[in-house]
């Protein structure tokens, strides 16, 4: 049999030859798109073994703990690149020359302000609204303002939408925080770096000059780099699915934010800190390890495990180093870090976690760094969404650039009632 064909034997002495498609890295895929003509669909709830698309943006090898963005290892990008440099790479496929970067950065800076009417959306929220609720709502509402970015079939609309989202997400994210603490919104400052400007909008006040701490600025930029993209995760797949119907980019990103909010996904960093606070001290760790193993207990160790990584998440390794740098520089003594480090040690030696290949993931350390920087727990997933916006937009752009892309519309295994006649209420 040709090594690029999979032969599927079917009942009734039938069979079908399915083409095998090869990528540049990773698993080959069996193209099952013609299976319908034989009267069958495939069945893969949660898409554990299903490739939904062809992509050239990010490659993950879960067994080896490898993460590449356009071929560049995350370890090199996290230590030698910057978030805006990575944004250019994810969006356009190549690292920018100095001139190209300067032009890109200038354009990003020209879109950091939001329409002044956006302020009134915040007036409608309760002060104690979850920042993710506000971020999701306001991001979707951008569709009401930027009419020259809504036509997904117009390349110039797609380009300006990408810039507006990368530029405005920090501004909106900081507005969510300022609104929740009752402080005035701080305008963007184009004399600062992307991360420095975000810190300024978060922590500056009109009362005094705000100085960006270079260690915190570098840690913030690294957190953005480490969360920027991650292949076809739940929120990116949500953005692709929404975008496949032709929905405008702001609506698609709002859908991605909603999906990321879940505690099994981007909400895990917030849930991880809450878990560490609930555990409270090192001596209570064994009790929680047992809860995590108990099949009847819904408790899971937040920040552990991953659908793809069955080895250490390479982002967690970099995040762990950054965590220690920040705490050392800021002279923060955080008892939760002691709990986190002991939890990591115990979990990595425990047979249950070893057998199930459950390692700390990116969310395990990011929460501790953000807490040390002064970011409230409720804002952790907002920062994840801020960073992941460029990944979502890159996948949305890649999908629309692919000729012949179709609306995504999975099928199902129907297990409901067969056809039956209606019975009027007086006869039931
Ligand atoms: C992110 O997809 C991405 O790329 C996501 C992300 C990105 O950058 O976009 O990397 C970001 O979402 C990271 C993951 C953050 N989530 C958490 O930290 C929440 C805790 N982790 C789990 O909920 C879980 O590990 C998932 C959801 C991350 C992955 O779940 P899977 O792949 O569906 O695996 P599973 O739930 O089937 O677990 C396999 C086994 C199960 O035991 P069995 O049924 O086989 O006996 O491992 C157990 C699970 O019970 N298990 C855990 C566990 N995670 C899985 N047990 C205890 N604690 C955990 N954290």
UniProtKB/TrEMBL annotation:
Q: Which UniProt keywords apply?
A: Transferase, Tricarboxylic acid cycle
Q: In which pathway does it act?
A: Carbohydrate metabolism; tricarboxylic acid cycle; isocitrate from oxaloacetate: step 1/2
Catalytic activities = oxaloacetate + acetyl-CoA + H2O = citrate + CoA + H(+)
UniProt xrefs under InterPro entries: Citrate_synth-like_lrg_a-sub, Citrate_synth-like_sm_a-sub, Citrate_synthase, Citrate_synthase_AS, Citrate_synthase_bac-typ, Citrate_synthase_sf, Citrate_synthase_typ-I
Q: Which PROSITE patterns match?
A: CITRATE_SYNTHASE
The family annotation for this protein states: Belongs to the citrate synthase family.
Q: Which PANTHER family match?
A: CITRATE SYNTHASE
- Recorded protein name is Citrate synthase
Q: What organism is recorded for this protein? A: Shewanella saliphila
Taxonomic lineage is: Bacteria, Pseudomonadati, Pseudomonadota, Gammaproteobacteria, Alteromonadales
Name of the gene:
gltA
């Amino acid at each position: 049999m040709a090594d690029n064909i999979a032969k599927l034997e079917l009942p009734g002495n039938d069979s079908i030859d399915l083409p095998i498609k090869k990528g540049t890295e990773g698993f080959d895929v069996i193209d099952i798109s013609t299976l319908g003509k034989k009267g069958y669909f495939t069945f893969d709830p949660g898409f554990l073994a299903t490739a939904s698309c062809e992509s050239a943006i990010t490659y993950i090898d879960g067994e080896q703990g490898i993460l590449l963005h356009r071929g560049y290892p995350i370890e090199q990008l996290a230590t030698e690149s910057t978030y805006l440099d990575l944004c250019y790479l994810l969006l356009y496929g190549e690292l920018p020359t100095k001139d190209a970067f300067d032009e890109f950065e200038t354009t990003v800076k020209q879109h950091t302000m939001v329409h002044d009417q956006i302020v009134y959306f915040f007036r409608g929220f309760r002060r104690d609204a979850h920042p993710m609720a506000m971020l999701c709502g306001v991001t979707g509402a951008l569709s009401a303002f930027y009419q020259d970015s809504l036509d997904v079939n117009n390349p110039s609309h797609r380009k300006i939408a990408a810039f507006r989202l990368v530029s405005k997400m920090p501004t909106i994210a900081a507005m969510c925080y300022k609104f929740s603490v009752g402080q005035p919104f701080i305008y963007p400052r184009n004399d600062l770096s992307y991360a420095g400007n975000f810190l300024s909008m978060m922590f500056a006040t009109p009362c005094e000059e705000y100085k960006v701490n270079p260690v915190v600025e570098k840690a913030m930029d690294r957190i953005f780099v480490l969360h920027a993209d991650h292949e076809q995760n739940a929120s990116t797949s949500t953005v692709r699915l929404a975008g496949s119907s032709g929905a405008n980019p702001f609506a698609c990103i709002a859908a991605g934010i909603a999906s990321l909010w879940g505690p099994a996904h981007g909400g895990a960093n917030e849930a991880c800190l809450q878990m560490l606070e609930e555990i409270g001290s090192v001596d209570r760790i064994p009790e929680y390890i047992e809860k995590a193993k108990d099949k009847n207990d819904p408790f899971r160790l937040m920040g552990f495990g991953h659908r793809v990584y069955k080895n250490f998440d390479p982002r967690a390794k970099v995040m762990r180093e950054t965590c220690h740098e920040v705490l050392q520089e800021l002279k923060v003594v955080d008892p939760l870090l002691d709990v986190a480090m002991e939890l990591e040690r115990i979990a990595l030696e425990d047979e249950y976690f070893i057998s199930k290949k459950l390692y700390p993931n990116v969310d395990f350390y990011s929460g501790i760094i953000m807490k040390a920087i002064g970011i409230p727990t409720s804002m952790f997933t907002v920062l994840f969404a801020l960073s992941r916006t460029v990944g979502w937009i890159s996948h949305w752009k890649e999908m629309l650039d692919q000729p012949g892309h179709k609306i995504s519309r999975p099928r199902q295994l129907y297990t409901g009632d067969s056809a039956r006649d209606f019975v009027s209420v007086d006869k039931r």
